[in-house]
Specification:
This protein is of the alpha+beta class and 451 residues long. It has 13 helices and 16 strands. The strands form five sheets. The protein has a six-stranded mixed beta sheet with strand order 4-3-2-1-5-6. A hairpin with a 2-residue loop joins strand 9 and strand 10. Helix 6 packs antiparallel against helix 7. The radius of gyration is 24 Å and the shape is globular. The structure holds glycine and manganese (II) ion (2 copies). One manganese (II) ion (MN) binds next to loops.
Length: 451
C-alpha cells in the first residue's frame, strides 16, 4: 500500500504542476511560493498553538510537521523545497519523511529565513505567495499575497483526486478502521467515553494531535450533539447507544467515518440497521454526473420514509420533506468533499473563477457540496437521525409538531442519535467505498465491503 503511494507520487506532482501552470498563466504570474505556516503563540504565553500546516503545502509535499518551509514552483522548472531546520537544542528539528517523492524535488535545508529568501529566487518574475502572511516577508518582493483568483482555481481543481491522493485516503481509512473496531469493543466491554477514545487512538496508532478532527465519542444522549466534544470518564452509567465519528490522516489526507452501535435495545438496534441499509443505498448513488444536491434530497426522502415506517412521524415521506419535518431529525448536510481538509474546499463553486456559487436547495442551509460528481471526487455519505431538544422544541412551536409522534420521540431520546458515515470515491465506472474493513451493524468485522 505504501508502494501505491510512492509509485503514484510523480504523476500526482505532474497533475499539480499542470493545474498550477494554468492558474498562474491565466492570472499573470511567473511563479508560486507556498509557505507551510508558523503556529502563533497563546496570549501571554510561551507556548504555541498546535501547528496546522497550510493545506496547499501538503498538497505538494508529504510534510505536515515542519513550519517555515516553502515549496517554490516555476513553470518548466523542477519544483524546489526550502526546508527550514533551525539550530535548536530545545526541540528535535523536523525531519523529512523518506520516500520516492524526494526525487522529484530540488531540496535545500536552511537554518534561517534570510537563506530561505535567497532560495526562493523571487527576482525571476512575478511570484504569488500562498500561506499565512508574516510581517517579515513584507520587503521580499512578492507580487501578490494569497491572490483569490489563483486560490479559487486551485481549489476548484482540487476536488478531483489523483491516484496518489486516493491511495493516501485508502490508507487513512485503514488506520481509522482499526480504531473503530477497538472503540466498538471498548464500548461493548464497559469502557467510558474517555476509555473508548483512548482505545481508538491506540489501535489507529495516532496521538490526538494527529487526528484530522477531534473524535466525536458519544454515549446515549450525547449522540444528539452533532459535534459532541466531551469525553466522560465515568464507567458506571447506562450504555444504551454509542456514536463514534473519527478518522485518521496519511500524508495529510483525511478519512472521516461514523458508526453507531446499539447497547442492546431491540427497537434501537432495528433503527440502526435500517439506517445502515439506507446509507448503503445512498452510497450506491455516488456516480459521476450526479448532482450531489440530489443525493442530499434523496436522503431526506429516505429518512422521511424511515421516520414514517418506524412511527416517529405520522406523515408520509413527501410531506415530511416538503414541510421540513425530516430536517428536525436530520439537520445537517448529507456529506461533503474530503481530502486535504475534512470539509474540503470549493464544494459550492460553479467554476474555477471563484465568482459564482451553485446554490443550496431552499431550506437546506448546511449542505457543503452542491457540485455535480466527477470521477476522482471523494465525498462522505453521512445520513443521520437525532433527537435534539432544541429542534424538537422549535418544531413543537411552529406547528410541525403535529406530524410528530411525541411518545415515540420520548422513547428514543435516551439513545441520542444515529449517524453512519463512509468515504466514497466516485470513478468513471463504479463507486469505491474507501472505508472498507470497517464493522457495520450488526457487527461484521473484517468482512470487507469495498465494491
Ligand atoms: N466529522 C465531521 C463530519 O462528519 O463532517
Ligand atoms: Mn464525520
Ligand atoms: Mn463528514
Amino acid at each position: 500500500m505504501h508502494h501505491d503511494i510512492d509509485a503514484t507520487f510523480a504523476s500526482h506532482l505532474d497533475t499539480l504542476r499542470t493545474r498550477t501552470d494554468a492558474a498562474l498563466a491565466r492570472h499573470g504570474f511567473d511563479g508560486l511560493a507556498i509557505y507551510s505556516g508558523s503556529p502563533p503563540y497563546a496570549f501571554l504565553d510561551g507556548q504555541p498553538y498546535p501547528y496546522l500546516v497550510n493545506p496547499h503545502f501538503k498538497h505538494w509535499v508529504p510534510v505536515t510537521d515542519a513550519p517555515d518551509c516553502f515549496v517554490v514552483h516555476v513553470p518548466g522548472a523542477q519544483p524546489r523545497l526550502v526546508y527550514f531546520q533551525p539550530a535548536d537544542y530545545w526541540h528535535r528539528p523536523p525531519q523529512l519523511p523518506g520516500g520516492a517523492w524526494q526525487q522529484a524535488y530540488d531540496i535545500h535545508g536552511v537554518r534561517d529565513v534570510a537563506a530561505a529568501r535567497e532560495l526562493l529566487g523571487l527576482g525571476r518574475g512575478r511570484f504569488a505567495f500562498i500561506g499565512e502572511w508574516q510581517p517579515e516577508f513584507e520587503d521580499w518582493g512578492f507580487a501578490a499575497v494569497n491572490p483569490q483568483a489563483v486560490i479559487a482555481h486551485l481549489h476548484y481543481a482540487r476536488a478531483v483526486k489523483t491516484p496518489y491522493e486516493l491511495a493516501c485516503m485508502r490508507q487513512a481509512s485503514r488506520l481509522a478502521a482499526r480504531g473503530h473496531v477497538a472503540a466498538r469493543d471498548a464500548f461493548l466491554g464497559g469502557g467510558s467515553e474517555y476509555d473508548t477514545h483512548m482505545a481508538y487512538c491506540a489501535a489507529a496508532g495516532v496521538r490526538e494531535e494527529e487526528l484530522p478532527y477531534g473524535n466525536i465519542v458519544a454515549f446515549n444522549e450525547g449522540g444528539a450533539v452533532l459535534h459532541y466534544q466531551h469525553l466522560e470518564r465515568g464507567r458506571g452509567g447506562p450504555r444504551r447507544s454509542f456514536l463514534i465519528d473519527a478518522g485518521a490522516q496519511v500524508r495529510g489526507y483525511a478519512s472521516d467515518i461514523t458508526r453507531t452501535w446499539s447497547g442492546g435495545d431491540a427497537g434501537f438496534t432495528d433503527l440502526v440497521a435500517a439506517m445502515d441499509a439506507l446509507q448503503q443505498r445512498l452510497c450506491a448513488g455516488i456516480v459521476a454526473g450526479r448532482d450531489y444536491r440530489d443525493v442530499h434530497l434523496e436522503a431526506h426522502r429516505e429518512i422521511g420514509a424511515l421516520l414514517h415506517s418506524t412511527g416517529i412521524v405520522h406523515c408520509d415521506a413527501e410531506t415530511a420533506v416538503a414541510e421540513r419535518v425530516s430536517s428536525v431529525f436530520f439537520p445537517h448536510g448529507i456529506g461533503h468533499l474530503l481530502g486535504l481538509q475534512v470539509h474540503d474546499v470549493a464544494g459550492l463553486a460553479a467554476d474555477a473563477t471563484g465568482t459564482r456559487e451553485i446554490p443550496r436547495p431552499d431550506g437546506h442551509p448546511y449542505l457543503r457540496l452542491t457540485r455535480s460528481l466527477e470521477p476522482g471526487f471523494v465525498v462522505t455519505v453521512e445520513p443521520g437521525i437525532y433527537f435534539i431538544d432544541l429542534l424538537l422544541d422549535e418544531a413543537r412551536a411552529d406547528g410541525r409538531g403535529r406530524h410528530i409522534d411525541w411518545t415515540a420521540v420520548e422513547r428514543l431520546k435516551p439513545f441520542g442519535g444515529i449517524r453512519i458515515e463512509d468515504d466514497v470515491a466516485c470513478t468513471a465506472s463504479a463507486r469505491q467505498i474507501l472505508t472498507h474493513r470497517l464493522p457495520r451493524p450488526p457487527a461484521q468485522i473484517e468482512s470487507g465491503m469495498s465494491t
